[in-house]
Write a structure and sequence with these properties.
Blueprint (H helix, E strand, L loop, with lengths): L1 H16 L12 E5 L6 H17 L3 E5 L6 H8 L7 E6 L1 H9 L11 E10 L2 E4 L8 H10 L5 E4 L2 H14 L4 E4 L3 H10 L4 E4 L1 H10 L3 E5 L26 E8 L4 H15 L2 H9 L3 E2 L4 H22 L5
Parallel strand pairs: 1-2, 1-3, 6-7, 6-8
Antiparallel strand pairs: 3-10, 4-10, 4-11, 5-8, 5-9
Length: 320
């Protein structure tokens, strides 16, 4: 009995000495920069993670929306923030891979100026149209594009949407007119109103509009169909062989952020991503949850930068 009591006291002592949460000093709110408007895919996902991350960290994460064309402004703010663990940002395949080549000059270096923490999710992009556009198939769209070169307006929510669209138009042999917006939400509004005719948007950004009839869809850019829109075929299924692109989101910190802070944020992020509530919600919204090590994510980002560099150069897309 005495031995059991001694072990019990030791266990209590260890618990009392251990901190309840791994915090980042100084213990102020952590700013999470989202380079798009509220309600967009990156914003929705970050806000889904925040409550659980706050619990694990014992600190408050404040979402700071900084929308701009292709997320450049918000990404720059993150890159040049003090590397003290109190600033992170949500980056995606556009801001942290495609932009590296799409722009002739950026105010930051995607590889040098950021420390990748982990991926939040991946998904495909839906080829969505205003219902009044007189096409019902990919072949119809190709025919209309050839009949009216440069007349169809494409809403561009970000760099991924632009490149994924441009790559498809090239494969179809058509010319389109790109119209840039500062994120997904204003692109959705413009597509519904008829200001633009076509857009490449996430399943989250389209599903309710597809149900209401305010948008229609032809296909999705991913290699596999998504559970949120199970009847929507992949564009590869529709005959564009080898066409497959994923939109991904992840969390980054400024370069030179202390490894201890990166480890702490990574732990909180994975704790959030591993909860059934968050995973189920991401899946319901059309995303495949992520959550790898910081080292694996850093390697992935470098590979994505190189992959898109090769594809952008080969595609002949006009650089910005």
């Amino acid at each position: 009995m005495r031995l059991i009591t001694d072990f019990a006291l030791l266990a209590i002592a260890i618990c009392l000495c251990a901190p309840a949460h791994a915090q980042i000093a100084p213990k102020r709110p952590i700013r999470s920069i989202v380079a798009s408007p509220p309600g967009g895919p990156s914003d929705v996902q970050m806000r889904l993670l925040v409550p659980r991350m706050n619990e694990v960290l014992g600190q408050t994460i404040v979402v700071d929306n900084r929308p701009s064309n292709n997320g450049v402004v918000g990404s720059e703010l993150c890159a040049h923030a003090a590397p003290d663990g109190l600033t992170i940002c949500v980056g995606n395949s556009g801001t942290h891979a495609i932009n590296a080549t799409l722009y002739r000059k950026l105010p930051y270096d995607i590889i040098r100026d950021f420390q990748p923490i982990s991926m939040i999710s991946t998904t495909g992009l839906v080829l969505a149209l205003n219902p009044k556009v007189p096409v019902g198939s990919l072949q119809d769209l190709a025919a209309l594009g050839k009949k009216q070169p440069g007349k169809l307006n494409v809403g561009i929510p970000g760099a991924t949407g632009q490149f994924v669209g441009d790559a498809l138009w090239k494969r179809l042999g058509i010319s389109m007119n790109n119209v840039n917006f500062k994120g997904s939400a204003p692109t959705e509004i413009s597509l519904i109103s008829g200001e633009v005719d076509v857009a490449m948007l996430t399943p989250l950004a389209t599903v309710q509009h597809l149900k209401s009839g305010r948008m229609k869809a032809i296909g999705i850019s991913s290699s596999k169909r998504v559970a949120l829109l199970p009847d929507l075929p992949t564009i590869s299924e529709l005959g564009v062989q080898g066409y497959a692109f994923e939109f991904w989101n992840g969390i980054f910190a400024p370069a030179r952020t202390p490894p201890s802070a990166i480890k702490t944020i990574h732990h909180a992020m994975l704790q959030a991503l591993q909860t059934s509530e968050v995973r189920e919600r991401l899946t319901q919204l059309g995303f495949t949850p992520g959550g790898q090590s910081s080292e694996d994510y850093a390697r992935f980002v470098k590979e994505e930068v190189q992959k898109y560099r090769e594809q952008i150069i080969a595609s002949g897309v006009t650089l910005l």
